[in-house]
């Protein structure tokens, strides 16, 4: 960027800040509704929607409730949702076998949503934690998450999800080599157009707690997810993870959590020619909502939090505020 020699009073930065219309005209970034992705939780047993107590304003949807919510989201311009299942404990075991069932709850939901809303883009999470009794993203053997054994399960799970109508598969497990195994499986089975959104820079974080409540995947004591998720102290490590995933066939890479890792979003966006998505995670959402509820902040903090993610280089953002933002700016109201 060219360096200019500017001096006061001929240059006054405040000229371009004089009113809202001028500020909008020269703004470098704008939040667009079609760049926001709404995560949704759906229960395999609930007959009605249930409030998620650790995530104010969010719900664990029944199947019918999910259909109604997606219909609402479509009307206000949210064209992409990420679906996360909450399963009863009887469907869980150490190996996460239910994830390999081609007629499992999430596969059935994907088929039914796609039938009702063919234009809706559906993101399906690829990890075993909703299906394992341990709450881990992989198969636990002798007190350790077995990387290579888990890869076989993730590949089969991915194929089931693609067959069921998922437009985008999002491997969030952080097993080494999983993107390559999944991509190879999809290519062999005729799903060459299925998009892979890799959770490439997924940090071991305390901000995931409310999400684990929502999907019922709290891990048992013993093994830490830090054995496979990234160390929050590291930034250079994200380059290695992202390069590996791109080389293995990832179309889009994700940074998670988003708000506390905007330096990583910026680094990745500046250095790689793939879209970078950010996930404003459950704990970040709840932190803001609780502060708003206590009147520490007003609702403007939501828009500010999203704007900084786009300014950092995010192409799109997964956020529990997607619906709120879309309703605020819905031109049909």
From TrEMBL:
- Please state the Enzyme Commission number of this protein: 4.2.1.24
Q: Which Gene3D superfamilies match?
A: Aldolase class I
Task: State the name under which the record lists this protein.
Answer: Delta-aminolevulinic acid dehydratase
The pathway this protein participates in, as annotated, is: Porphyrin-containing compound metabolism; protoporphyrin-IX biosynthesis; coproporphyrinogen-III from 5-aminolevulinate: step 1/4
From which domain of life does this come? Bacteria
Q: Which reaction does it catalyse?
A: 2 5-aminolevulinate = porphobilinogen + 2 H2O + H(+)
Listed under GO biological process in this entry are: protoporphyrinogen IX biosynthetic process
UniProt keyword annotations, A-Z: Heme biosynthesis, Lyase, Magnesium, Metal-binding, Porphyrin biosynthesis
Where is it found, in Gene Ontology cellular component terms?
cytosol
Q: Which GO molecular function entries does the Swiss-Prot or TrEMBL record give? A: porphobilinogen synthase activity; zinc ion binding
What the entry lists under InterPro entries is as follows: ALAD, Aldolase_TIM
């Amino acid at each position: 960027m060219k360096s200019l020699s500017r001096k006061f009073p001929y240059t006054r930065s405040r000229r371009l800040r004089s009113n809202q219309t001028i500020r909008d005209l020269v703004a470098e970034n704008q939040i667009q509704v079609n760049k926001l992705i709404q995560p949704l939780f759906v229960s395999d047993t609930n007959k009605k929607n249930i409030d998620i107590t650790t995530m104010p304003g969010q719900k664990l949807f029944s199947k019918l409730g999910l259909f109604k919510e997606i219909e609402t989201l479509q009307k206000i311009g949210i064209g992409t949702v990420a679906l996360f299942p909450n399963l009863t404990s009887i469907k869980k075991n150490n190996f996460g076998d239910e994830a390999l069932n081609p007629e499992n709850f999430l596969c059935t939901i994907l088929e039914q949503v796609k039938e009702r809303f063919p234009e809706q883009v559906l993101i399906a999470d690829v990890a075993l934690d909703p299906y394992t009794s341990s709450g881990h993203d992989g198969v636990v053997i002798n007190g350790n998450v077995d990387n290579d054994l888990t890869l076989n399960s993730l590949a089969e799970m991915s194929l089931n999800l693609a067959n069921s109508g998922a437009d985008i598969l999002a491997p969030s497990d952080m097993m080494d080599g999983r993107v390559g195994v999944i991509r190879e499986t999809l290519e062999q089975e005729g799903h060459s157009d299925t998009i892979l959104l890799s959770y490439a820079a997924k940090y071991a974080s305390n901000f995931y707690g409310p999400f684990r409540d929502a999907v019922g995947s709290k891990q048992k004591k013993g093994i830490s997810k830090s054995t496979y998720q990234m160390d929050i102290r590291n930034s250079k490590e994200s380059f290695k993870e992202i390069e590996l995933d791109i080389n293995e066939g990832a179309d889009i890479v994700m940074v998670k959590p988003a708000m506390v890792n905007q330096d990583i979003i910026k680094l990745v966006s500046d250095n790689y020619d793939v879209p970078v998505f950010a996930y404003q995670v459950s704990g970040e959402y709840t932190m803001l909502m609780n502060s708003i509820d206590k009147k520490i902040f007003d609702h403007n903090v939501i828009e500010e939090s999203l704007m900084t993610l786009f300014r950092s280089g995010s192409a799109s953002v997964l956020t529990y505020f997607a619906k709120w933002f879309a309703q605020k700016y819905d031109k049909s109201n």
